[in-house]
Amino acid sequence: MVEVRQARYFIAVAEELNFSRAADRLKMSQPPLSQAILQLERQLGTTLLNRSSRSVQLTEAGRLFLEQCRLLVGASERAHE
Length: 81
Known about the structure:
Layout: H1 4-16, H2 19-26, H3 30-44, E1 49-51, E2 56-58, H4 60-80
Helix pairs in contact: 1-2, 1-4
């Protein structure tokens, strides 16, 4: 099961398409964020992001997962309110 924290991490990386900027946005360092995304991909059994030394791009699975993450985080925020 995906945790809200994991969904927030993935959303930041997917929107920024850059691990360093996403880490800054989340107020954390980049290595733990990278590890969290790798762990999430292992947990789901699929690649969510194509990474190269110059870019990060969403895979098709990543695009679909992003939509679901936004729903999860939105539901969590509404429940908190």
